Amino acid sequence: MKHKSILVVIDMHYIIIRFWPTSWLRFYEHETDEAKRLFGIPTRVLYTESTGAYNYTGEYIHHRMEMKEWVDHILDIRSRSEVDELTFARGCERYDFERVSNAIPKTRELTIEANIDEALSHRIFNQYSSHIDGLQLDRNIFRGNESKFRKLLIRNLHCLRMGWYLEELQGFGLNELLMCNTSYIKLQNINFSEKLLNRFLKLWVEGANFRMRRLNIYFAQQEVNKELILQGLGCRNIEITEQFTFNDITYTFNARNRLVAFFDFYRKDGVKGRIVFRTERNNEKEIFTLFT
Fold this sequence. Notes:
Layout: E1 7-10, E2 15-20, E3 23-27, H1 33-38, E4 45-50, E5 55-60, H2 67-77, E6 83-88, H3 97-103, E7 107-112, H4 118-128, E8 134-137, H5 146-153, E9 159-162, H6 174-179, E10 184-188, H7 194-206, E11 214-219, H8 226-230, E12 236-237, E13 244-246, E14 249-251, E15 259-266, E16 272-279, E17 285-291
Parallel strand pairs: 1-6, 6-7, 7-8, 8-9, 9-10, 10-11
Antiparallel strand pairs: 1-2, 2-3, 3-4, 4-5, 11-17, 12-15, 13-14, 15-16, 16-17
């Protein structure tokens, strides 16, 4: 996977800006809540460079710039007009949101974590959603507002990730999945039965979700019935010695990828789908389907 150019994370302890794969800055660490709220000139700016074997940390002493100036400076260095990914994590409410959005007005991908109150989550979404190409929502903030949710699902996004491992994803079923106009969809801890996934795959064979290139579904239950998912799809079981590459990642049957089995099947127009079963380190069952 290619490293994104500029990533920003806003949480209760500090703000991190990663501008190279192994280099990042930390702002507002150990500063007061009032200093964080004002989002002004940081007292300390810590720089970390990771070599893999160890981390080198230094401090910028003579750079008295506000956060907007820091962000603009980094964007200029990387010849970017916007950050690539912006994450609002637990505790981000400590920072004044108007000041945050003024310093970071746009992002290509947006993440809103679960431990953020609903009012702020909507405010964040409304501020950034018109510019994004990718979105991650740890919980469904649109329950009770189906019209707004539908408008999101039919958008031509590159990726949509929903759910997290500690809470069942609510309000996302077969109808919502069929509505998605996204290339890559990831659904975690979803209340989605094997029969429902089988039904979706059969509809894909008939031509549904033609833009979708990848679908990841994480089942929290200990066992997943492969036969129920594969029933009626005419799948070909891939031999255990085979491997395949997708988005520059090579998948084989080994401990690192934790693969259990994979199967090929075909849409009526000849497009191939591949269903991959694997087990995560926490025994969560992942099923992802690639459409090539």
